[in-house]
UniProtKB/TrEMBL annotation:
Protein name: Tyrosine--tRNA ligase
The protein's Enzyme Commission number: 6.1.1.1
Subunit structure: Homodimer.
Organism: Candidatus Flavonifractor merdigallinarum
Position of sequence motif 'KMSKS' region: 227-231
Length: 408
């Protein structure tokens, strides 16, 4: 099976500009391709997983990936998939986030000996002269065509700023610049980027009279059509300080039955033949498939050791007795207590189990919170310092989320 055929079989390919040419490029290791990452946080998250795995697969087949960090475009903000305008970031924040990205990407992509590049579009976008850019590039874009693009339609309803309107031109210029400077001949990205990517191929054709190509990746959605990688407490991050390896494992262990095989195909490196054998699995066998998915992805992001610890901890928690040693935990200090105790709402917030006290209150009122096996029935319940000593207390949220709180 060729690389392109495997990408199709795994359900990764959404749209392409020229299928035969793209097949020729990537199957023969001739593609120098880029994927853009806007540095809107100091960690990558589950939403980036598809892109990272595509880069990894294509690099293994001899192609050269470029991870393009949007230090320049990040100062404008991508309107794609947004109904509101992104908040503006400082240059210092963007640089810090870029540094964090490279460290995380290195787990997926080999940057040694020129096998992959990491570039920052601030290096060329911030040096552009506005009038020169208008004369050189502006004439190549039709405002009528731009306004028909899906990424702008959504923002037009609430008001599209001129700042955001320039995003497509900037992304197109990135492709045009890298085509000339590092031989980049293919752009890949999420399916919501299709219009921006076509802008780049068209700019290269009009300015240079040459062909460049675009391939979009299927967005990682649940069977209900919602983006994967969100929980009640927020995004599922790749940084272990923001989402622990155990919580990361549990996120994938708890995906819906309807999504597990799709995730195995799209995100893991397991052979398709092995995954295809799971097509007829049901009941308890699907739980096994979820364990496999969670283990494989945690191993990729955090290490086999962390994946094993997370799996063992998850299994132990649902067996008699339970093992707290590998359970996610939060260590409180005396400053977190008031009169030698802490309220349950504050405790859940401190442990990162909820984004707000309002959400904690709702869960308790619905009977979804337990403390050391006893259901919490009052939002005013407190936990004393003596209970937090030693091994601490175990908070259970819902049926599957466990967290230990102890006093340091």
């Amino acid at each position: 099976m060729t690389l392109y055929d495997e990408l199709k079989a795994r359900g990764l390919v959404a749209q392409v500009t020229d299928e035969e040419e793209i097949k020729e490029l990537i199957n023969n290791g001739k593609a120098t391709f880029y994927i853009g990452f806007d540095p809107t946080a100091d960690s990558l998250h589950v939403g980036h997983f598809m892109a990272l795995m595509l880069m990894r697969r294509m690099q293994k087949a001899g192609n050269r990936p470029i991870a393009l960090i949007g230090g320049g475009t990040g100062m404008v903000g991508d309107p794609s998939g947004r109904t509101d305008m992104r908040s503006m970031m400082t240059v210092e924040t963007i640089q810090h986030n870029c540094d964090c990205f490279k460290k995380q990407m290195s787990k997926f992509i080999d940057f040694s000996d020129g096998k992959a590049l990491m570039l920052n579009n601030a290096d060329w976008l911030l040096k552009l002269n506005y009038v020169e850019l208008l004369r050189e590039v502006g004439a190549c874009f039709s405002v009528n065509n731009m306004l028909r693009a899906e990424c702008y339609k959504q923002r037009m309803e609430k008001g599209l700023s001129f700042l955001e309107f320039n995003y497509m031109i900037m992304q197109s210029y990135d492709f045009y610049h890298m085509f000339q400077t590092v031989g980049c001949n293919l752009q890949c990205g999420g399916d919501d980027q299709w219009s921006n990517m076509l802008g780049g191929t068209e700019l290269i054709r009009r300015k240079l009279g040459k062909d460049a190509y675009a391939l979009t990746i299927t967005l990682l959605l649940t069977s209900e059509g919602k983006k994967m990688g969100k929980t009640q407490a927020g995004a599922v991050w790749l940084d272990p300080e923001k989402t622990s390896p155990y919580d990361f494992y549990q996120y994938w262990r708890n995906v819906d039955d309807a999504d597990v095989l799709k995730c195995l195909r799209m995100l893991t490196e397991l052979p398709l033949e092995q995954i295809d054998e799971m097509d007829h699995w049901e009941g308890a066998q699907l739980n096994t498939a979820k364990e496999i998915l969670a283990f494989e992805l945690t191993k990729l992001v955090h290490s086999e050791e962390e994946a094993t610890k997370a799996r063992d901890a998850a299994r132990a928690l649902f067996s008699t007795g339970g093992d707290k040693s590998n359970m996610p935990s939060t260590t409180l200090t005396a400053e977190d207590l008031t009169d030698g105790a802490i309220g349950i709402l504050d405790l859940m917030l401190k442990c990162g189990l909820v984004p707000s006290k309002k959400e904690a209150r709702r869960l308790i009122e619905q009977g979804g919170v337990s403390l050391d096996g006893e259901k919490v029935t009052s939002v005013d319940q407190t936990v004393a310092a003596v209970a937090l000593s030693g091994e601490g207390v175990t908070i259970k949220k819902g049926k599957k989320v466990f967290h230990r709180a102890l006093l340091g």
